[in-house]
Here is the input.
Amino acid sequence: MSGRYTVVIPTLNRRETLLRVLRAVAAQDAPDLLESVIVVDDHSTDGTFEAVGELDLGVPLQVMKSRNRGPSSRNTGFQAARGEYILMLDDDCEPAPNLLREHHRRRRGVDFPHCVRGMVTWPLDVPETPFMRFIDRYYQCGIEDLVGKDEVGFRGFMSGNLSIHRELLLAHGGFDTGFVYGFADTDLGLRLARGGVRILYAPDAVAYHHRSPTLAGYCDRQERMARGAVIFARKHPEHLDVVGLDRLPGTRSLRGIAKAVLVNRLTKPGLAAIASAFDRLGLTRLSAAIYFQILAHHYHAGLRRALADGG
Here is the structure.
């Protein structure tokens, strides 16, 4: 249907948060733009498939079993979508009431191939920790790189809140099934950019991320992300800089040794406390520098393991 959207949401074991997201999708203030909703269940074990199947949103809703695992599970929904546009949402990203309208407004009058990326931030009623502020600024949404921009490069492709013409997405193959965790978005963004697709930024198209990340959890995430980074680097060797493989310190280099001494299981809690204190004092650059070093240490450790596992 012309000008209408199919919302595609992949999910894995987030039943209650997903139901909240779905209700917010059904409550959009531009219902004429919503063609249907597709949930792709990536082998959940918490009753997600059954709960969604029993839900009555008042809009067409389909729940499907994924044929793939990881980011490419979305492809199942892309194939089944019937709207002219696909709006990708994560299962823990609750759309603001005007999200669909803002996506559509941003593409109005645009006559070149494009997708529209929105903003993802924390819910207004969730207390924000210093680490959450850091993640919001540099990692989750990369706010630091978005200020004053109307468009972003391929690194800014973010499937947690992004819309694109369905045929354009399918023409570029959707998500690569080789990625299990990390850098699948970057890979698809790069392939779209090579095809002349531009990523427009819509700061008023907001989705609220229902998660409270901790430093420990993000360190684990960094190590898992590294495996996707190596897959990306092998697929796109001309872009080693994107995943940091052009500057990976050796374990025996002075830089590598210094970082291993600085960041370890015993020192990390103390460093985190210092970073939080700096943040409360308004010394956000010093706070960020500490967080960057901790996360980089874990990311580099993950890269080395992934490289060793892959030969």
Q: What stands out?
A: The chain has two domains: 5-203, 215-310. The longest strand covers residues 198-209. The chain has twelve helices and nine strands. The first helix runs from residue 15 to 26.
